[in-house]
Here is the input.
Amino acid sequence: MNDTKTKGLTPDASDMIGAPVLRPDAIDKVRGEAKYVSDLVFTGMLHGRVIRSSVPHARINKVDLSRVEEDPNVICIVTSDDVPGENVVHVIYDDQPALAEEVVRYIGEPIALVVAKDRTSAERAAKQANIDYDPLPVVSDPIAALADDAPVVAVPAVVEEGKNVFNHMRLRKGNVEDGFAQADVIVEGEYRTGYQEHAYLETQGAIAVPDENGSMTIYGSMQCPFYVQGAVARVLGLPLSKVRVIQTTTGGAFGGKEDVPSLVSSLAALMAWKARKPVKLIYDRTEDILTSSKRHPSVVHYKTGAKKDGTITAIEADFVYNAGAYQTLSSAVLWRGLMHIAGPYRVPNAKVDAYSVATNTVPCGAFRGFGSPQVIFPHESQMDKLAEKLGIDRLEIRRRNVLKAGDRTSTNQLLKDSVGILDTIDKAGEMAHWQERLAAIEEFNKTSEDRKRGIGISTITYGVGLGGKAPFLDKAGAYMKLEADGSIAFSVGTVEMGQGLITALTQIAAESLHIPVERIHMAQVDSSRVPDSGPTVASRGTMMSGLAVVDAAKKLRERIDAVAADLGISKQDISTEMPKIAQTFWLKNLDPAVEGWGVTAPVDWDAETGLGNAYMVYAYATHIAEVEVDMATGEVSVEEFVAVHDSGTIVNRQLAAGQVEGGIAQGLGFALMEEIPQKDGKLLTSGFTTYRIPTIRDVAPNTKVDFVEAVFPYGPYGAKGLGEVPLMASHTAVSRAVAHALKADVSSYPLSPDRVKGIVGTAV
Ligand code: MTE
Ligand code: MOS
Here is the structure.
């Protein structure tokens, strides 16, 4: 590991950054003592169930809930008529109602709510609802939805006039005609990916508790407490100050708990409002899979031109994401796709058009990578095609094109520092023994007919944080206080969802305060404790909340140092003398509490050209996978895996490696097995018997993970972001390895045995 400890924000960094420390939330979780939302019980608590649309597009003729109400255990029902505020679940746009009024636009859309004494009664009663629909034309395929004569299926206010286009975004850089004219070779491809389900262990859930003075408290499994606060305030017609949101231990999220909890919590809040009692709403697995967000299915056309030496001269692309029935996060997801479609390469000329399209399908949303995996598979496949046509090694063509400090990105952003991409390629190449393995694989494949081996490489970049399309969200607060016994309590507004944020932030606090981690406690995230800190997405948690924690800790440290000086305690003894120092604060009525604030370099973006400083900083990674394909069954096994990441300074190496290993598995699932067929708006897979995700047996037995730490001068101790990047890089390393093994083009996911057999059939 590089010695980066002296380079970050705080020059006197000691030994906590990079150290392996015990995860504060680990023991409770392994003992089963952590309190998830479904474990919580409140006095008088009732249970909710959602009555949902069974059709993909229809006008609601009549909602007959008389038989639901007859159930003796039913307390009340809620329809759109009962909404005290606005009937809208605010995410980015306001098209999605909490409860459908006249029209339903996807199967599973909430229409009414049942509140009952217990969960079983609520479920039983909900089945008695009788809803009469007048069917409307259904559009479920995004390409068909773009046809001139396709009926418009979305709320008209949020689509381009007369079309099913939620968003059309552009990137225009240089002149692509000139760029292609300079090219010696041009390669083209069409790439398709389908739904990916988050498959978090804990399903969506929330409890709404009516509090004193007409306020409402929400407990729930979520990534974005401040989104939930905003949504609940809108739907109840309350000021934000009367809505308090507490994040409960969250059993995985992966982007799936970014926007959906705003809906879940709004529904729970509506029930609690009417019943005047706490109401718990926990989705069952089928309901969760069928009605909550997924990764957007995509179709991408991509054309790349390059000179004989491999230098890229131009890219031209268009892509379509199936957004589903409502906007939710699609504009943000599409934007990220647009910003990442050129990959980590120098691209002088680019013309890209991106569309998110409305259909009568479940609204899609954020999923680890946030719209970038769908364009990474294409940009990396294109690089391999160029390499093949030009007779250049695949690793080498990437080396020749990757961005360096001083270069400009596809959006014309000047990269000033912290660009470790080339080092990730070189290190990954060494660790995987790229050249040797290429030769060995060729030998192996000469003699082996029934099994073929292949090796694939994927090199990527990721803009950390929300970036130029929503710069107002990239802020974070922290609150920190010195207790009278010398321990420290702090609060932030971003959440732990498995990724290790509590550990990373506790280490950052320990480093800044020079107090051992055992004496520092991060409190449960509660919207009433800190200002709006933006969402826990875009791998921004460690960087943004880390900055806020450093800011708070520095302020507290100054006060601690002053008291220590008064007491004649030397700097190196502060850590052990903390109880005495804290006692002095208490006895002398000194203020022991501070607030911290985190913001970084400004970003900007021009919607007309798509150019600008899209993100404050970028993370990078190179993954290399080796696979073996059973040519008879089409089964693919991943045999070797190497992952090298540049996420700036690594705060906790074990946790970081864990993030990488988990992300690799999720990407492997995306590339090889995860699939939800959809027909006429109906999802044909609703459980884990048919939705296959990787298990420990599917991951490479010998996965090697390492880091190059290109320090980010504005990050906490030089840290950037990591959380999503591993998934983004891994799937294409795997799919390109399959393409190499089959000596054939691979253009759609998942590479399930049947699809692989199909490719084997067409290969020469
Ligand atoms: N890791 C675990 N175990 N569980 C999760 O839900 N979510 C991912 C990633 N890693 C996730 C995870 C996603 S989508 C994001 S945006 C980041 O974690 C967010 O956390 P960070 O900002 O602290 O990296
Ligand atoms: Mo992660 S998809 O940005 O929640």
